[in-house]
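Lab meeting, item 3. Inverse folding demo.
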């Protein structure tokens, strides 16, 4: 199993970024996927979740209305569209395949997002 994030970078407050997570080594369409983030000196926190078909999404309150999670099962990729970014969104963003039945969870290596003027 491999999860590879991309799309991070530096952006000004109010700007947008789209993160991607390319998955391989498992049947992507069978698994829900999530995004987490970890800011310096803070614990990792859950950001968003999408069901295996993409029909259901959930968001942490602090990103509702600003971030959108989506997926393309034909490309084995999950996305996180981030808009109206704030300095407090600065963090390393991680893609995660949650555990399911007897199968463990997996994490990507993370991609840095910095929101600063």
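The presenter then showed the designed sequence:
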């Amino acid at each position: 199993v491999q999860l590879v994030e991309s799309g991070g970078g530096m952006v000004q407050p109010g700007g947008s970024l789209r993160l991607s997570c390319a998955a391989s080594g498992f049947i992507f369409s069978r698994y829900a996927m999530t995004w987490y983030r970890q800011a310096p000196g803070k614990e990792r926190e859950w950001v968003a979740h999408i069901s295996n078909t993409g029909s259901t999404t959930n968001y942490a309150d602090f990103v509702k209305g600003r971030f959108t999670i989506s997926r393309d099962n034909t490309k084995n990729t999950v996305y996180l569209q981030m808009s109206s970014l704030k300095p407090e969104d600065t963090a390393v963003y991680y893609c995660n395949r949650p555990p399911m039945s007897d199968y463990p969870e997996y994490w990507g290596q993370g991609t840095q997002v910095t929101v600063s003027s």
